[in-house]
Amino acid sequence: MYKMYGDLAVYSGRAHPELAKEIADYLGVKLGEIEVFEFPNENIFAKLLSSVRAKDVFLIQPTCSPVNRNLVELLIIIDTLKRDSAGRITAVIPYYAYGSTDKKDQPRVPITARLVADLITVAGADRVLTVDLHAGQIQGFFSIPVDEIHAFHMLSDYFIEKNIPDLVVLAPDVGAVKRARRFAERLEVPLAIVEKRRQPKAKGSEVEVYNIIGDVEGKNVLIVDDEIDTATTVSKAAETAKKFGGKDIYVCAVHPIFSPPSLERLKGVDIKEIVVTNTVPIPLEKRKQLPKLQVLS
Known about the structure:
The protein is α/β, with parallel strands linked by helices. The chain has helices spanning 17-27, 67-83, 112-123, 152-162, 177-187, 232-243, 262-267, 284-289; strands at residues 8-12, 34-38, 44-48, 56-60, 88-93, 127-131, 146-149, 167-171, 191-200, 206-213, 220-228, 249-256, 273-277, 293-296.
């Protein structure tokens, strides 16, 4: 049988080796052997321990914390694979960092999501595979093919199986409405939206006021977002839902970034369950602080 590329090879950087092993085991292949380390001056070095000449290589490396180290490591390993004459290099980036800087929303600022796309392309990637970009238009920043897969069905199936009674899906802000509406349609439940406004106070200052468009009173609430970073948005949405009479609060997100002080904020609100995926690793010490956390693969 004709094959455009050689044998399949799966490699991993240091960002998320557990996910890489899980993928390799599912495919029934062995992870490629590679040596990656830092010199005392923090320069990253990578060396393949076997040839990838003409092979169809998939490199798994989310650009999660530490973001800049993992990003540069991704670029270096891509260059290493390219210089060993890999047949095709697919950069598997479950979490794409700098995704929120996808446009110039004020004067004299960069579009870093585009810069990262250029770096990955110049390093030698032939295509990119990613999960739930912060903004869909980031696909257009690349001059190589980009496949964006979504965790929507996996996450929504989880809540369909739970069959939570009297449920309403809550978008934690206006930007999350499209994602939340899809969830509400799939679960066949109502949709509500958290609205944030700034109202003037005395002496020219302003205060943020949170309201809910829709009805959550006496209902169980599912807050849906693409990621939990510092948890400001999610925790405010949970507090607002409780204020307006919501019962049990569930939180659902794709990327569990959990930057400080997210853990303190999440522990400070009454949330029944937090459901995320394993696009980025969650250290054991963080898992211990969030006993209500459920991680889907």
